[in-house]
Automatic annotation (TrEMBL):
Residues 1-27 form the signal peptide. The keyword Signal applies. Keywords: Signal. This is DUF5666 domain-containing protein.
Length: 208
């Protein structure tokens, strides 16, 4: 190889090695959490202080147009064929998909997040938002066939599985002691901001 060409290639190799090591380092970093689950410790103006379920103290700056929704308990029998639901599932030993929780969307939220994706509630859990196509009642609860664009699942919902729905709420429901799930993002200055908070009604802990 001519000397001049060799001198040109060496910097490119060095750049490629640095880029590769940088990408590897990024890949090794844990993903930034996108939600915090916990209990409100205090509300100071637009700042929400939350004690996470893991024990961390989290301060969230609420946006001016923060969307607050309530979460209320309903019965398993309230899940009907045609309902649009979200459900967190984990695989059972027999390969079935067992529901950890089910939330029934009101009609004005139909289609929200339709599809199936990994979820962070439990190890190996999946969140699926879909329409109930069939419901079979058995001795151990209901087996739901749910369909979404591009797929379908059979989900086993036991009598002990928490079933909830969304109800109207506002910032006045964000009080110390309330259980919440706050969706958050990290700002350039390192602070955390939330534009959406789900709050349990009547002492309920949102199960999702």
């Amino acid at each position: 190889m001519p000397a001049r060409r060799f001198q040109f290639v060496r910097p490119l190799v060095a750049v490629a090695m640095v880029a590769g090591s940088t990408l590897y380092a990024i890949a090794q970093q844990p993903p930034t959490p996108t939600r915090v689950r916990g209990t409100i410790e205090a509300v100071d103006g637009d700042v929400l202080a939350v004690k996470s379920r893991g024990g961390e103290d989290v301060r969230l700056n609420m946006t001016r147009d923060v969307n607050v929704v309530g979460i209320s308990k309903i019965a398993l029998s309230d899940i009907k064929v045609g309902s649009f639901i979200g459900t967190t599932t984990v695989p059972g030993p027999d390969g079935s998909q067992n529901a950890v929780e089910v939330h029934v969307f009101p009609e004005n939220m139909r289609g929200t997040g339709e599809g199936s994706r990994p979820y962070d509630l439990r190890p190996n859990s999946t969140m699926t938002n879909a329409t109930v196509a069939d419901s079979v009642v058995g001795n151990d609860g209901h087996t739901l066939t749910i369909k979404y664009r591009g797929g379908e699942k059979k989900v086993v919902v036991s009598p002990e599985t928490p079933v909830v729905t969304y109800v109207p709420a506002d910032k006045s429901d964000l009080k110390p002691g309330a259980k919440v799930i706050a969706f958050m993002k990290k700002l350039p200055d390192g602070s955390l901001e939330t534009s959406r908070v789900s709050v349990g009604r009547d002492g309920l802990t949102p199960p999702m």
